[in-house]
Amino acid sequence: MKNRNGETLNMQRIPDMDKESNPTTPLNVEAQDYNPHEHRNRPHPTTNAETLIHMLKGSLGTGILAMPNAFCNSGLITGTIATVLIGILCTYCLHVLVKAQYELCKRLKVPILSYPQSMKVALEQGPTVFRRFAHISPIIVDGFLIVYQLGICCVYIVFVATNIKQVADHYTTPLDVKIHMLILLVPLIIINYIRNLKLLAPFSSFANVITFVGLGMILVYVFNDLPSISEREMFGSVRNFSLYFGTTLFALEAVGVIIALENNMKTPQNFRGTCGVLNIGMVVIVILYIIVGFFGYVKYGPEAAGSITLNLPMDAVMAQCIKVMFAVSIFITYALQAYVPVEIMWSTYLDHHIKENKLFWEYVCRTIVSLVTFILAISVPRLGLFISLFGALCLSALGIAFPAIIEICVLWPDKFGPCKFVLLKDITIIIFGCIGLVVGTYISLFDIIESFK
């Protein structure tokens, strides 16, 4: 499966564990010489260079296209500094999560733990106040993952319909964007019926190529007749910063992708470290996002839309080609994103309860997922606010707060360093993540409601 930007994911949710490797094994039993990296059985592991390419390729999607709108909410100076800081925070939290999962795997003597498993196992052995939540923590993590993936699918539907509308309106009688979404409904359901993702592999490769080409064509428009920087706001309002935060977090944070990439590496020990794949990849990604966000806002100012493609001229053939290219790319990726909530809901919660006609009910599940994303998208066709909402709501928890909670539990009770520095640091991160979740979600929902008045 792939992430929101078309990145290939390995969706092995539950690793095979024998009785000696049960995830409920006490974590205070020291793992001797067990190295999880040596026991991972990957038929086609990726090299360091391939992993880095996957990271970079995965960053060039709807997230980066929304960065000019994010800078519009933050201002040029605030946006540049904050993007660097958020990039550092996201990278650090990913380091924390990968390191904590590695330690849990060592203690349990298993090669891989999924994110929900890691949370459950960690809470079981953490502070007493956390242990009561251990049994429901996988459901909570899965819930955030499902909501986030459904949110991505909603963003995709709005993105495709809005871009197609701009092109179609130039040649035919203008139609409401909701009509274009309705036209897309049946194709979305059909493409979501594809159960074997290998069938989509050639189309996904094509989507990745046109995404790269399309982004290069967009930069041609951005740097053509660029206005003076002095014409733009240097600092945005405090209120709008929460919208910037949600959008940037949506663009930068890819916790599921990072875990999948690290799990599929030939030399996972090279993923972390000062000059590891993660740091190099995130540095390049942050620089790309700042370039697109900064100059995209300089170019289009307060008119910067939820996707920079919507700011391109409607009557220019090259701009129309860009919009169609990205619409096709994102449409293909919808099936891969919708696969994630289907996989979680069907394999984890539904499959073992259904005894007959499983294939039929799986298709029913896939249809319902498509219908839910369509209903949400047609109810709130606000691309920028959608991106900000789901970034703040889900990624503040999945990408920031949860990794810090897991680290506290892994290091509990006496491995926090001098003056319990790590504990204080993790508590600060958790508070920051919770504030981002609450404030960002509230402001996004408020603006969505206000946009209908």
Percent range of helical residues:
55-70%
SS content category: mainly alpha
Overall 3D form: globular
Strand residue content: under 5%
CATH architecture: Up-down Bundle
Please write the CATH class name: Mainly Alpha
| Major sheet summary line | none
Tally of discrete structural domains: 1
Q: What low-confidence regions span 5 or more consecutive residues with pLDDT below 50?
A: 1-31
Mean residue pLDDT: 85
Write down the CATH topology. Answer: Amino acid/polyamine transporter I
Q: Encode the helix/strand succession as letters.
A: HHHHHHHHHHHHHHHH
CATH level-4 homologous superfamily = Amino acid/polyamine transporter I
What would you report as the Rg, rounded to the nearest angstrom? Answer: 22 Å
Question: Layout of SSEs?
Answer:
Elements: H1 48-59, H2 62-65, H3 67-74, H4 76-108, H5 115-124, H6 128-131, H7 137-171, H8 177-192, H9 201-222, H10 238-252, H11 255-263, H12 277-300, H13 317-350, H14 358-379, H15 383-411, H16 421-450
Helix pairs in contact: 1-11, 1-12, 3-4, 3-10, 3-12, 4-10, 4-12, 4-15, 5-7, 5-15, 7-8, 7-13, 7-14, 7-15, 8-14, 9-13, 10-15, 10-16, 13-14, 15-16
Write up this protein:
There is one protein chain. Helices cover 68% and strands 0% of the residues. It has 453 residues and is mainly alpha-helical. Helix 13 (317-350) crosses helix 14 (358-379). It is globular and about 65 Å long.
